[in-house]
Write a structure and sequence with these properties.
The structure is a homodimer of 312-residue chains. The two termini of chain A are 23 Å apart. The relative contact order of chain A is 0.17. The first copy, chain A, is of the alpha/beta class and 312 residues long. In chain A, helix 4 links the parallel strand 1 and strand 2.
Chain lengths: 312, 312
């Protein structure tokens, strides 16, 4: 099945376009039309040593099959060195415009003078997306996002996709346009779902095309599901997964001294939350459930190479 | 004794000058001429959460009585918040021009465009002092050091002194001049010893005066003493301490996952070294030895207020 579709599609550029129009993402990757595709994705790599260690362990020993890196963070050099040596591990960039923790901070990759609207009075990124939106121009956002992508390539990372920390890079139409434009220029899928079609903005609509990858569903734990229990939530996610491209966002770290200090005063998305993500996805139960449910694990690398760069 | 000397010295500005010329540092602080003064000082606060936690614990529960903070480091906001709330704890600034660890990095407080000679191709401070010396102008060093001092005051730190990470700020005569000038302007003692008198540089000699505080001896562990055993080294330091102003440099942190990762590939000044410093100086043995040897613990705050700012 996989081979024959690829064969049909490889005849010509026209063939690709026709395929793109007629086949859904699952089929274009070589799976059945109604396959339940899932990317199990770790966010926030580079933020802390604890996050790097736990995420690497999960990527090497669990169904977690993709992750994204925060280029401006202090531990970026550690995860960049790992990514450079492990070109087949699926690493994207968690494009970062905020520094949200109370006592541990970072700022832009760009020279601060070139992006004054992205930094607070202490020279760090703003804690909240709201503050960013009030101060940062789309031009500054684009400068900074480009510099993060350039730095990642310079560090030798085989970048498979772009997504955005705290959704900041997608939080205003003009930021979203910059984010999509950079993805397009580098031939990278960018995390978005199909609601992007509803945005009444010509520039954004023009950046969509037959090789744009859009998720059917973006799933993640919430404060309510954390309070109710992570195991129950993730079990439910896996047992009720629907056909289409599903993207599940995790935050993998240990509930250790460093992570407790990084996330102090933040019970949600804190050290216990991250340990719970790690515990469930490295459990035997999780692996067995994925198998039982017939879930097809796919990576951003496949989406990048077989769809976004299909015509290259 | 203490009172009478202060009384004599408080008559007039002239009195202070005469006192400064005739009395040594111990006497100016109110101790006997041959007192064995000691500052037990933790370096590198702000570099990591482990360093902050261990240093705070030692400052609160041991003879360690002074420490200095690295303003450009990611954990600066944590130690700055502690310093703001604990104005009587003796905190200086560990002025920083290098980022020496392999996989965990920071850069200048200043906008990078304003100090291009201080950053490497990845936008971080240079790993080595040698590289800094080859690229960084004294003007750039002065801009960055001033911005670190300004940021510390803005954060509410009661700055008691200046010293320099890896000795970088004192590693070239023109850097040293900037470092001394900033100390003078802010009325802060800066760590130097009496060899500064031997530097054939008019600008540096002009920055010295009767209220300059110079250490008689700056003591610290070395790779050789680490290999031979830290307990033996520090026991020897305390039992052979000579009269005068002695400054003992420690690096207090835990041998935990974070610190191991920060200092990976660096057996010296690494996590075990820092744990050994912490263990000895928080031990009962250390406290008893200081008492037995008649060592007088003094702080930079005393030196700042009673000597450097004597005429203010």
């Amino acid at each position: 099945m996989k081979k024959s579709i690829l064969f049909l599609c490889s005849f010509s550029f026209l063939g690709n376009i026709l395929c793109a129009q007629n086949l859904n993402i699952a089929e274009r990757l070589g799976y059945s039309k109604d396959a339940k595709l899932l990317i199990i994705h770790g966010d926030d790599l580079g933020v802390a040593n604890s996050q790097n260690r736990a995420s690497i362990k999960a990527l090497e020993n669990s169904p977690v099959n993709s992750a994204s890196i925060m280029v401006p963070c202090p531990w970026f050099p550690e995860i960049a060195a790992y990514a450079r040596k492990n070109q087949n591990v699926d690493f994207g960039l968690h494009l970062t415009l905020n520094s949200e923790w109370d006592f541990y901070k970072w700022g832009p990759v760009s020279s601060k003078d070139s992006v004054p609207g992205l930094v607070n009075k202490d020279g760090y990124f703003f804690s909240s997306v709201d503050s960013l939106q009030m101060q940062g121009t789309a031009q500054e956002v684009e400068i900074e996002l480009r510099n993060q992508v350039k730095k990642a390539y310079k560090a030798g990372i085989n970048v498979t996709h772009l997504d955005g920390h705290m959704g900041a890079a997608m939080s205003r139409p003009d930021y979203l346009e910059a984010y999509m434009r950079i993805g397009k220029e580098y031939g990278l899928p960018v995390l978005m779902d199909k609601r992007v079609y509803d945005i009444p903005n010509d520039a954004i609509q023009k950046l969509l095309g037959p090789n744009t990858v859009l998720a059917d569903k973006i799933l993640s734990a919430s404060p309510a599901t954390f309070d109710a229990g992570m195991e129950e939530f993730y079990t439910n996610v896996l047992t009720t997964l629907e056909p289409g491209l599903n993207f599940l966002i995790l935050h993998l770290a240990y509930d250790d001294d460093e992570m407790k200090a990084v996330t102090v005063n933040h019970p949600y998305w804190g050290a216990k939350w991250r340990q719970a993500d790690f515990d469930f996805f490295t459990s035997e139960k999780c692996g067995a459930l994925i198998k039982k449910q017939g879930i097809v694990l796919v990576t951003w690398k496949e989406l990048r190479d077989k769809i976004v760069r299909a015509d290259k």
